[in-house]
Amino acid sequence: MTELPPDLHRLRTLETWLALALDDVRRAIAAAERRETERQRGAEARPPAPDWLLELGLNRDAPPAYVHAGGCWNAAKRSRAVARDEALRALADGIAACPHCRPDTALGLLES
User: Fold this and answer.
1) Where are the domains of the chain?
2) The model's pTM
């Protein structure tokens, strides 16, 4: 252990500094606990991932680009959730199935 100063004045100064430092650490711990609680609450309140996605075209007049399974890593940000029947209808209308997640196979249109 580090040697402490022998005189009372420096010991009291050190005590004050340690008390202030401890207060800072406790405030940081409380803030971290609040952030963790908020993160957990957000994760619990997050809606479930959709089962099927329709990737929209690059502009509003372009047809949709792909049909994706809900957890596809390749789905673009311009995707929207769709119901199973809408995903089936889109595939039947000629919209391409994502080659990575293969929603056509998952929907039972193709056998793997």
Assistant:
1) 1-46, 52-106
2) 0.58
